[in-house]
Amino acid sequence: MRISPPARKATLRQRIFAYMNANRSTFELTEAQHKRSLFGGLHGNVLELGPGSGVNLAYYPADVQWIGVEPNPAMLPYLQRAIAQTGRSPEHFRIDSGDPNGIKLPAGDASMDAVVGTLVLCSVPDPSATLREILRILKPGGQYVFLEHVAAPRGTRMRKMQNFIQPVWSFLAEGCHPNRETWETISQAGFAKVNLEHYQHTGGGPASPFIAGSVIKGI
């Protein structure tokens, strides 16, 4: 296992967020079916954005060569534990703290067979820039698979609530925005094929509207 040193020590807010992320068992139970469908067919070189505590590792096929880009240093112990629990050789895994600005990904042009993101585009500083980076590192025909909570339809009571709580929500949840129309950003990013579904996460609350799917880079 290769680990790049974190750029800085974890803040108290990051440690609390990491602990909560590592103990969200109800969310994992409700989203297991989507994750098996999204990740079960991946192969080769896979870069995961914001793997957190490593809960997605259980869904990847054994032949995947995995790079996790995790900017929260408090996630590292949980992520190392999840890697050990896979029972696979540490040589299959690499952990990188990523670009401090949250844009540049640690991979060469056209070097990845797939990129994975779950609950990531809600919190990156510039989703469009992140998607451009994903396109850069994907091989032709490679895919980006995702699962994200998104904005409720405009004009609804839920959307008004999301807009109202967004500043506090973003402060407490590592920059997360509950009111981003992420499906539009993905659809307009320049991928050759877009396949996504909208659904309601059973947990309820302002983060209940979800999308899941995949997009493919043109050949």
Biggest sheet overview: 8 strands, mixed
Contiguous runs where pLDDT drops below 50 for at least 5 residues: none
Portion in helices: 25-40%
Q: In terms of structural class, how would the helical and strand content be classed?
A: alpha/beta
Overall geometry comes to globular
| Radius of gyration, CA atoms, in whole angstroms | 16 Å
Care to describe what's here?
By secondary structure, the protein is of the alpha/beta class. It has an 8-stranded mixed sheet with strand order 1-4-3-2-5-6-8-7. The two termini are 32 Å apart. The mean pLDDT is 91.
Notable features of this structure?
219 residues, eight-stranded mixed sheet, alpha/beta
Q: What secondary-structure arrangement, pairings included, does this model have?
A:
Elements: E1 2-3, H1 12-22, H2 25-39, E2 45-49, E3 65-69, H3 76-85, E4 93-96, E5 112-118, H4 127-137, E6 138-149, H5 157-172, H6 182-187, E7 193-200, E8 209-216
Summarize, please.
By secondary structure, the chain is an alpha/beta fold. The chain contains six helices and eight strands.
